Amino acid sequence: MTDIDWEGLRTEAISAMRRAYAPYSNYSVGAAALVDDGRIVTGCNVENASYGVGLCAECGLVSALHMSGGGRLTAFVCVNGQEQIIMPCGRCRQLLYEHSASGMLLHTVSGIRTIDEVLPDAFGPRDLEEARA
Ligand code: THU
User: Fold this and answer.
1) 78 is in an annotated binding site
2) In whole angstroms, what is the distance from residue 11 CA to residue 127 CA?
3) Can you tell me which residues form the catalytic site (predicted)?
4) Which residue among 19, 49, 76, 89 sits deepest, i.e. has the most Cβ atoms within 10 Å of its Cβ?
5) What is the pTM of this model?
6) Domain contains 111
């Protein structure tokens, strides 16, 4: 986990951001993540004339994760149209949490953080299992 190529991951996020479809907000986002088998998956935001239907970049990234073989996310970064690192929105932190490896790292506006730091006391699959037991 310590030898993560953050600059390479950010470059992938920038490439993804350039494919964004964001004609309504004019706010392009690209996301890139490392998978536990070494793959990199990416996504961009895809908006819609029905504004609420718009997809965050992380949605595309999670779809790409499953379409390319599944696995767990170990490192993540997302950028805006100015190539600046941004925080994943609250909904997308939940989305990432579901598919995270334990100790997943995020390059954030305040440095490298763990998924547990950016989504403390997260609700997750275990809560459902415990309720069923
Ligand atoms: N957006 C993302 O793609 N990911 C985030 O984590 C934050 C917000 C997108 C959604 C919308 O298309 C645009 O940024 C402006 O909110």
Assistant:
1) no
2) 36
3) 58
4) 76
5) 0.96
6) yes
